[in-house]
Amino acid sequence: MKSGFHVQLRIGGSLAAMALCACVSPLWAQDQAEAATAMAPQATDTTADQPSTADIVVTGSLIARPNNVAVSPIVTVSDELVQQSGQITLEDSLNQLPGFTPSGNAGTGGQGAGGRATLNLRGLGSNRNLVLLDGRRLPLSDINGNVDINILPESIIGSVDVITGGASAIYGSDAMSGVVNFKTDKYFDGVRADIQNGNSFRGDYGKFNASLALGTKFADDRGRLMLALSYGQRDPLSGAQRGFFDDKVPSSFIGTGAFVPNALNLPSQAALNGVFAQYGVTNPINRTLNLGFNNDGTLFVQTGAVNYKGPTDGAYAVVGGNVRMPVGPQLQILNAFERKSAFAKGEFDLTETLTAYGQFLYVDSTVTTEAGGSLTQFAPFTTIPVTNPFIPNDLRTLLASRADPSAPFRWSARYVGIGDKGWDENYRVQQYLGGLKGTIGGSWKFDGFVSYDETVHNQSMFNAVLKSRVQTLLNAADGGASLCAGGYNPFGITNATSLSQACQDYMTATVNSRERLTQTQVQGQVNGPLFNLPAGPVQLALLAGYRKNTYKYDPSPDLVSNNVESVVGSNPAQGQISVKEFAAQIDVPLLSDTPFFHELGVGAAFRYSDYNTTGSVKSYEFDARWQPVDALLIRGSYQRAVRAPNIGELFSPVTGSQLAIGTPPAAIGDPCDVRSSARTGANGAQVRDLCLAQGIPAAAIDAYQFATTATGGNIQGNSALTPEKANTFNVGFVLNPKFSSPWLSGFSFSVDYYNIKIRNVISTINGLTVLAKCYNLDGSNSSYSSGNEFCQLIQRDPTGQLVAIAQPYLNLGALDTDGVDVQVNWSLRLSEAGIGDGSGKIYASSAIGWLNHYKVQTLPGQASQDFVGTSTPGRPLPKWKALTTVGYSSDMFGIGLRWRYQGKLRDISAVTSPAAEQVGVKPYNLFDIFSTLDVTKNVQFRAGVTNLFDKGIPFVASSQNGTDAGTYDMVGRSFYVGAKFNF
Fold first, then answer.
1. Do the Cβ atoms of 81 and 157 come closer than 8 Å?
2. Which of 115, 266, 336, 350 could form a disulfide with 287 if both were Cys (CB 3.0 to 4.6 A apart)?
3. Which residues, 6 or more positions from 202, have their beta carbon under 8 angstroms from its beta carbon?
4. Per residue in 357-383, is it b (16+ CB within 10 Å) or e — as a string?
5. In angstroms, rounded to a whole number, what is the distance separating the alpha carbons of residues 408 and 479?
6. If you compute the radius of gyration of the chain from its CA atoms, what whole number of angstroms results?
7. How many Å separate Cα 115 from the centre of its chain?
8. Mean pLDDT, to the nearest integer, of 356-381?
9. More reliable by pLDDT, 586 or 314
10. Across 846-851, average pLDDT
11. Burial code of 20-56, b = ≥16 C-beta within 10 A, e = fewer?
């Protein structure tokens, strides 16, 4: 007998704990599974309730047929993965697997980035893999085509299939690096309840999740209904709760406030020397340096901390001799999260050959992000007139010595008298789906559906400081006392923190914005046998569909006018994309049950897509499978995949974002900064000339310092974009021998090689890359020409300060990656080995990923850079990554140990600016333990400890926050307890 073999990821109460290692398996023979891996029930959702002769549709195929085999490597994850990993969100569980590169998650995404949870296969981008629910597209969460998997309540998920490699011919655009297909639970009769609670051992990161599912069958089992309700909640974690962040993000925007000299209107040297001579300072003071304000009205030089009288611990520090305010303790490194969801699906057999079905999904989730106190960071800047009554006398002396003594002056500060700014990100998602499926002529099947979904994202920024209100207070002759009690005195810590509640209310507002995305889908499919060959029937599937996506963004007028401090403005946006598609797939069995050809088959697929924006594109696929003997499957495929530009890439107006560049020399920073390796290196004179050509005044060039760790990034759509194209290739084998020895009968082994080459890549140019290439940090501008194409993207203000880096969407160069996935499974039923007579089993399993190359070609014709083994926030690319599980289980009890491994990483500067390479990250190891107890058939308890040895937070030099919260454990040792009940 031949039927589907698919090793499932399970842990705890069954030996499917091996699945936590994400078994890559080929949906192979069930009798082999029973002989070699009998520890796990079948992962295919067709074998549990159907006879072995039923047709099976595997993820990555349109064809339904008996004994279906996946020619692409598929990782199948059971619903227990999330529970046993101790997480309450799917992405945190899936990101443990070697094929995933951590991307955004619900716990990260400060600065109003939405707290979205996205998946990123192979590190190629979260919008280059397709996320499905039961083989159908999910609602989009943003303008860039990403799916926020926060919208999926864990209570409805039965398993998850992950395909790596292109699948555009089967599923359409976006499936370049692979597909993640979430499968909902099967219909059942009864009630299921699940509850889980957890916390850190420090007691500061609580997580709670509960779900209730009800199922019933009616009308003599012709009708089936399921309803699932769930609630999830997670506490925030602040940087102040972890000592690692005490000295992180040492910002030059400090609560004392500071005078920022204008290089074209500097105080006289004599006046400056005279003022500081009163403090006992005899060395000349550089006229271009920022001057801070002590509480007693005296001045201090921020660079060098000359005459600084303020605190040097807690919220303030002297770092490298400079007065700084570490922002790390102010940041919410992991965000608060709350989700309420409802899901219902049902079907009814109208006749023996026709079934009507429907589905409904509703999710209301809120992520709260915080990013510390507001600061005077982005243009247009507020200024202080010389008529302001609170100006200290020593500063008045310097102002009067300028060539234009009546000119207002720019200042720098952090609003320490106002609460931290933050965002409430609320998502409301609705999806409605209805369809008909059945058979035609007994052997052909059809399925057609219509769906509509809507995502509304309401964002509210609280404690937003309005520039116009601040400017009004600063301009007032009485310092603003007539507008709010006491007015606004920004000079010195004591004054800044004594701001009255009336002035706080006057200066701040809650700033709102709203995004709305819709998706309409119509799709029909038929499949069945064309004719029979000696080895079996030739199968054909045909599909036709239509899809329309719309987007509209309505920001607050304060965002449009760039009136909010430390937030880059944004403009209204809208757009739509529609596509008509046709696809076909064929499968041809060539040989079966002959010597050296237990099975041999080939297949192909083709898709034609016609977009209203970019025209038509074609994708195709060829595959082959060969089973020389029953125990060995060799499979491979070649695919041409495409990705059409999304709404954001086509239509996004100029939209600002914060671009972290760091402070030199520890990071790239502004290369014109006198502290940067570009200025202090062998080619410092050429860099100086380039900086002068870009507008830094000659009077400031030899003392120029960029005041902060971030600048603006201006992203803009491009309607002239053309689709990306990718060639993907995979080949591998699965060995599942039928050893007679009980010590070896539970052994299986798989190896798969993948190769993905993407051309005509749609992307913005990374801001750090722009700086590296303009200032020849990687050899791209050896003539140090200001006319260099990358230098043209850099914007400076009249004083030379770096204001923004333009990042338009372009069809750029290429992305190439390849590597190997290995899966090893072993289990032993103890009674079969003569050890006891119970149901106990021991097992071990390991999923290992080896990354050979990750090459990026920024522009066509340029040399590629290989980023394998490097670290950058949101895209760590270790050469080795593994997930290993060992344990014991029986019918009543299970316990196991999980080891998560990530190989060492060099900092990304090793590639982007090798002359100034920063420290990397050492190999990273985490260990978890988990256990289950089946009290009765209907009651199960579970518990576990994650990060068992309380591994510390690693330092990531290229990260503005000093680490990568999406990749590494910020919490430390944690525990969870849970229970599952069936009625």
1. no
2. 266
3. 241, 972
4. bbbebbbebbbbbbbbbbbbbbeebbb
5. 14
6. 31
7. 9
8. 88
9. 586
10. 93
11. bbbbbbbbbbbebbebbbebbebbbbbbeeeebeebb
Work out the angle at residue 707's Cα, subtended by the Cα atoms of residues 702 and 711, and round it to the nearest 5 degrees: 115
Residue 35, token pair as written in the block: 């002989």
Q: Which residue, among 121, 39, 27, 199, has the nearest Cα to 885 in the 3D structure? A: 39
Burial 252-278 (b: 16+ CB within 10 A, else e): bbbbbbbbbbbbeebbeeebbeebbee
Angle between helices 269-277 and 393-400 (to 10 degrees): 160
Are the CB atoms for 325 and 409 separated by under 8 Å?
no
Structure tokens at 808: 């338009």
- Please report the pLDDT score of residue 28 as a whole number: 40
Owner of token pair 């040895």: 949
- Give the SS3 label for residue 94: helix
Burial label, 324 (beta-carbon count in 10 A; 0-12, 13-18, 19+): buried
Report in angstroms the alpha-carbon separations of 925 from 716, 880, 884, 962, 963: 40, 12, 11, 19, 16
Local confidence band at 31 (pLDDT 50, 70, 90 cut-offs):
very low
Q: Provide the token pair at 719.
A: 């309607």
Tokens of 409: 């002056």
Q: Enter the DSSP assignment of 104.
A: -
Angstrom CA distances, 237 to 108, 335, 336, 367, 971, stand at 11, 7, 8, 13, 8
| Buried/exposed code over 189-227 (b: 16+ C-beta within 10 A; e: otherwise) | eeebebebbbbbeeeebebbbbbbbbbeeeeeeebbbbb
Q: Which tokens is 738 given? A: 């039928």
Q: What tokens does 798 get?
A: 């009249």
Q: Is 860 left (phi over 0), alpha (psi -120 to 50) or beta?
A: beta
The residue-averaged pLDDT of 303-321 equals 92
**In 858-968, where do the E strands start and end?**
865-866, 870-871, 880-889, 893-902, 906-907, 924-936, 939-946
> Quick one: pLDDT band at residue 56, thresholds 50, 70, 90?
very low
List of residues 6+ apart from 718 with CB closer than 8 A: 649, 650, 808, 809, 810
Strand pairing category for 865-866 and 129-133: unpaired
Taking all residues of the chain, what is their mean pLDDT, rounded to a whole number?
Answer: 86
757: left (phi over 0), alpha (psi -120 to 50) or beta: beta
pLDDT exceeds cutoff 70 at 660: yes
CA distances from 478 to 132, 385, 391 (A): 61, 12, 12
Which pair of tokens denotes residue 467?
A: 């520039």
Strands 924-936 and 893-902: antiparallel
Q: Which residues pair with 885 in a beta bridge?
A: 845, 898
Going by pLDDT thresholds of 50, 70 and 90, the confidence category of residue 59 is low
Q: What is the helix (H) or strand (E) element at residue 687, kind and residue range?
A: helix 684-693
Task: Give CA–CA dist 845/24, Å, rounded.
Answer: 11
Cα 897 → chain centroid: 27
**3-state secondary structure (DSSP) of residue 245:** helix
Element (H, E) at 170: helix 168-171
Angle at 569 between CA 566 and CA 573, to 5 degrees: 150
Give dist(CA 252, CA 433) in Å, integer.
Answer: 53
Please tell me what DSSP assigns to residue 36: H
Q: Side chain identity at 841, as an amino acid letter? A: K
Kindly provide the b/e burial profile for residues 618-655, where b requires at least 16 CB atoms within 10 angstroms of the residue's own CB. ebbbebbbbbeebbebbbbbbbbbbbbbbbbbbbbebb
Give the C-alpha distances (Å, rounded to integers) separating 89 from 85, 105, 231, 896. Answer: 10, 9, 11, 21
Helix (H) or strand (E) segment spanning residue 270: helix 269-277
Please spell the DSSP secondary structure of 510-546, one letter per residue. EEEEEEEEEEEEEEEEEEEEEEEETTEEEEEEEEEEE
Rounded CA-CA distance 508/485 in Å is 15
